[in-house]
Specification:
With about 300 residues, the protein is an all-alpha fold. Helices cover about 75% and strands about 0% of the residues. The chain is built from 10 helices and no strands. The longest helix is centred in the first third of the chain and has 44 residues. The protein starts with a helix and ends with a helix.
Length: about 300
C-alpha cells in the first residue's frame, strides 16, 4: 500500500516537480507584470491628470477631451492585457495540475485538460525563473507534517491547504484594495476642496479622469469576492468530508478528483494577486497553514 504522506513529502522536492513549480511561478509572475501594466494605465496616470487639470484653466476644455480620449484608449489596452493574462493563467494552472497530479497521486482529468503542457514550455519558463530567482523557496511546497498521514487523507489535507491559503490571501488582499480605493477618493476630494472646485467641475475634471482607478478596484474586489465565495464552498466540502473520516481511512478517488477539478477551475478563473501582496502576507499565511495542518491531523487521530 502506498504511503501517501511520505510520497508527498519526498516527491514534491524531486527535480521534475521543482521544475514544474519554478515554471508556473514564472508564468504567474509574467501574468502579474501584465496586470501591473493595467494598474499603471488605470491608476497613477489618471490621478496625475486629475491633479493637473484644475491648474490649467485656460486649456481646460481641450485637455478634458484629451483625457476622455485617453480613457477610451486605456480601456481597449486593458481588454487586450486581460486576454493575455487569461492565457497565462491557464498555462500556469495546467502546470500546477501536473505538479499536483504527480505529487498528490491524483489521476489526470483528460476531459477537463485534454493535453499536458509541453515539456519544452515548462523548461523554457524554468530557465527564465532561474535567471532572477533561486529554487530555495520552492522546496517543501506542502508541509512536512503531512508525512505522518499514510492514506490519501494526506491528499485531501493538501487540497485543503490550497483552498485555505488562497482564501485567506484573497480576503486580505480585497480588504487592502477597498481601503486604497477609499483613500484615493478622499485624496481627490481634499485636493478639489483646496482648489475650491465646483461639484460639476469635480465630477467632470476629477472623478471622470479617475474613473479607471475605481473601475479597476471594483473589478478586483468583485472578482475576488466571487473567487472567495467559490473557495469557501470548496472549503466547506473538504471539511465535511474530513469530519466523516479517520486518519487511517481511504477516501474515494473520484471525490478527490472532483475536488481537484474545482481547484483547477478556481485557478484559471480567479484574478491574479500582485506579488507585493503575496510577499507581504506570505509569512503569516504559512505560519497559520502549519498550525492548521497540525491541528487537523490531531483531530483526525482523535
Amino acid at each position: 500500500m502506498i504511503n501517501f504522506g511520505a510520497h508527498i513529502v519526498q516527491e514534491q522536492n524531486t527535480d521534475t516537480c521543482i521544475k514544474y513549480l519554478a515554471s508556473q511561478k514564472k508564468i504567474y509572475k509574467t501574468g502579474k507584470l501584465t496586470f501591473a501594466t493595467q494598474v499603471l494605465i488605470a491608476v497613477p496616470i489618471p490621478i496625475i491628470i486629475s491633479i493637473i487639470v484644475p491648474l490649467l484653466n485656460n486649456a481646460e476644455y481641450n485637455i478634458t477631451w484629451t483625457f476622455i480620449l485617453y480613457s477610451i484608449i486605456a480601456t481597449f489596452i486593458e481588454l487586450f492585457l486581460e486576454g493575455k493574462t487569461c492565457d497565462l493563467k491557464k498555462l500556469a494552472a495546467s502546470i500546477q495540475e501536473l505538479f499536483d497530479s504527480k505529487v498528490l497521486l491524483i489521476n489526470w482529468n483528460s476531459t477537463l485538460i485534454p493535453t499536458h503542457p509541453e515539456s519544452e514550455v515548462v523548461f523554457r519558463y524554468y530557465n527564465k525563473f532561474l535567471k532572477k530567482n533561486t529554487l530555495e523557496k520552492l522546496f517543501d511546497w506542502y508541509p512536512k507534517e503531512i508525512e505522518s498521514v499514510k492514506t490519501n487523507v494526506a491528499t485531501l489535507l493538501c487540497q485543503r491547504i490550497n483552498c485555505n491559503y488562497d482564501f485567506n490571501l484573497r480576503k486580505r488582499y480585497s480588504n487592502s484594495i477597498l481601503f486604497l480605493a477609499l483613500i484615493t477618493f478622499i485624496i481627490l476630494f481634499v485636493i478639489s476642496g483646496i482648489f475650491e472646485i465646483s461639484l460639476t467641475s469635480f465630477i467632470t475634471n476629477v472623478l471622470f479622469p479617475s474613473l479607471p482607478v475605481f473601475v479597476l478596484a471594483y473589478k478586483q474586489i468583485a472578482n475576488n469576492k466571487e473567487a472567495i465565495e467559490n473557495l469557501n464552498e470548496l472549503k466547506n466540502l473538504i471539511e465535511s468530508v474530513l469530519k466523516k473520516v479517520k486518519i487511517t481511512d481511504c477516501i474515494d478517488n473520484f471525490l478527490i478528483r472532483q475536488i481537484q477539478d474545482k481547484i483547477y477551475l478556481k485557478r484559471i478563473s480567479s484574478p491574479l494577486v500582485p506579488e507585493w501582496a503575496y510577499n507581504l502576507l506570505r509569512q503569516n499565511l504559512e505560519e497559520e497553514m502549519h498550525f492548521s495542518v497540525l491541528e487537523k491531523i490531531r483531530e483526525l487521530k482523535n
